[in-house]
Design a protein that fits this description.
There is one protein chain. About 40% of the residues lie in helices and about 20% in strands. By secondary structure, it is α/β, with parallel strands linked by helices. The protein folds into two domains: about 5-65; about 85-285, Rossmann fold, CATH 3.40.50. The strands form three sheets. It has a seven-stranded mixed β-sheet with strand order 5-4-3-6-9-11-10, sandwiched between helices. A two-stranded antiparallel ribbon has the order 1-2. The chain has a two-stranded parallel sheet with strand order 7-8. Helix 1 (about 5-20) packs across helix 2 (about 20-35) and helix 6 runs parallel beside helix 7 (about 125-135). The longest helix is centred in the N-terminal third of the chain and has 16 residues, at about 5-20.
């Protein structure tokens, strides 16, 4: 069977689910991964044939069941770096790349001070590892409640040749992290915690809803800021003077997040929109010696 025939099969089976352009994207990603054939090479040799096409047909069946292409391949790209992903980790989004860029843009060009950075809910490690890669003098920590997610984060740190201290702890239970951070303060705390309310499930795509870990996605309707409150309390206790707190947030809760940081006595609070013009990030600076 040649790859052109396989591509036609993909369109026949998947166009009604994803649309022609996205199906082409899936197909070319799979062909490059499985057969090391680039999109350009396939365009020049449309009758390129392969002998073993079971793997790509298996991938087709998984796509028909709405499994994300990143889980099928077992990896994705974030901020130009490779990351392994599986059902225990969220698939990194472009909006989170924007959050990382925002953090990096706030760093001085040169500094003699070794930054300490804490990423809460690190998952695949994409935020922590990318910051470690771009800030090689920083000491970076990644915290997550999921042992299986931390296993992937450890592999990703090795894959990208950086050192990140990974900690298994529950941010909602101070007893599990107090001892880890007893003598530590941080210059930057960042988190992309669960922020999708249960009521928003009905608007989500099946490939996300049926595959990505709900533990990392959802929060109860009655307390949508649960994780933000807990992380803010930790930040008050563990940020150094003029330390910065960065969050990725639910687009509908920007005003609530501003109120939370104002009430917690953060200053220089800035709400930032993502590329889709949605309230998606917020920053606050801790410059108060008062500790709750």
């Amino acid at each position: 069977m040649n790859l052109k025939d396989l591509q036609n099969t993909f369109h026949k089976e998947l166009d009604h689910l994803y649309g022609k352009e996205e199906v082409d994207s899936f197909f070319f990603m799979l062909v490059e991964s499985y057969y090391k054939v680039s999109r350009l090479q396939l365009a020049m040799e449309p009758q390129f044939s392969v002998e073993n096409y079971k793997a790509i047909l298996d991938a087709l069946e998984l796509l028909k069941k709405h499994q994300p292409i990143q889980y099928i391949l077992g990896y994705t790209e974030f901020y130009g770096l490779p990351f392994k992903v599986n059902e225990h980790t969220l698939i990194p989004r472009p909006e989170t790349e924007e959050l990382v860029a925002w953090i990096l843009n706030h760093q001085p060009i040169t500094t003699n001070h070794q930054l300490r950075i804490l990423d809460i809910g690190t998952g695949s490690g994409c935020i922590a590892i990318t910051l470690a890669k771009h800030l090689p003098n920083a000491k970076v920590y990644g915290l997550d409640i999921s042992y299986n997610a931390l296993k992937i984060a450890k592999e990703n740190a090795g894959l990208n040749k950086v050192r990140v201290e990974l900690i298994e702890a529950d941010i909602l239970n101070p007893e599990t992290w107090n001892s880890e951070f007893k003598d530590l303060n941080f210059d930057i705390i960042v988190s992309n915690p669960p922020y999708v309310r249960e009521q928003e499930k009905q608007h989500m795509k099946l490939n996300v809803l049926d595959n990505e870990p709900h533990l990392a996605l959802f929060v109860k309707d009655e307390d949508p800021l649960l994780f933000y409150k807990a992380i803010t309390r930790l930040a008050i206790d563990k940020l150094s003077k003029n330390g910065r707190l960065f969050f990725e947030i639910n687009e509908y809760l920007g005003k609530d997040m501003i109120q939370l940081l104002v009430k917690s006595q953060f200053s220089n609070i800035e709400l930032k929109q993502d590329m889709f013009k949605k309230d998606r990030m917020i920053k606050g600076v801790w410059n108060n010696d008062f500790r709750k």
